[in-house]
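Support request from a user on the community tier.

User writes: "When I paste my structure tokens into the form, the page sometimes reloads and wipes my input. The last time it worked, I copied everything first. Here is what I submitted, just in case something in the input itself triggers the reload:"
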């Protein structure tokens, strides 16, 4: 019985259907429709989504949800919209976001000189700090850009009836 359930779970037709549902939920038009349906103030939805989008640009993996909820609360944003905004950071975008943040961090800090003869713990710590500092301008731009694009779109779509 268990083997049959496992085989059904991993059947190619079902896996393809699950992948299409997951990919379909990340399509911008469907995501925008979900944000319109939240029914909250356009500022709250836009601020919440922008909070999630901004914090998903940081290398604080595993903390994106919690930090986006805290930022959304601080800017009076919608908590569920913040959770949806963290979808900006995904396995496809993470390599670009992290390498971009490291590049910005090296522009701001410079590459630490002592990394050549340092141990692995020091290298990881310093590289993480450079990446974290470099992700802050990217996160700020992501927040501003997302908020400034999303709020008028929500107002316009709600005016048309969604």
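"...and here is what came back when it finally went through:"
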């Amino acid at each position: 019985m268990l083997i049959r359930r496992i085989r059904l779970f991993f059947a190619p037709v079902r896996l393809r259907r699950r992948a299409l549902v997951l990919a379909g939920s990340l399509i911008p038009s469907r995501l925008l429709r979900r944000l319109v349906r939240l029914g909250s103030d356009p500022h709250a939805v836009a601020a919440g989504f922008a909070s999630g989008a901004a914090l998903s640009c940081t290398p604080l993996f595993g903390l994106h949800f919690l930090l986006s909820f805290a930022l959304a609360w601080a800017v009076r944003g919608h908590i569920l919209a913040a959770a949806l905004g963290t979808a900006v950071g995904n396995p496809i975008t993470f390599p670009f976001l992290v390498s971009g943040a490291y590049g910005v961090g090296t522009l701001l800090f410079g590459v630490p000189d002592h990394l050549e003869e340092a141990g692995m713990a020091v290298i990881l710590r310093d590289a993480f700090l450079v990446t974290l500092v470099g992700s802050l301008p990217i996160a700020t731009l992501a927040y501003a850009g997302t908020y400034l694009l999303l709020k008028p779109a929500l107002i316009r779509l709600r005016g048309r009836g969604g």
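Agent notes: The reload is a front-end session timeout and is unrelated to the input. The CA atoms of residues 56 and 64 lie 6 Å apart. The chain has one domain: 39-159. Escalated to web team.
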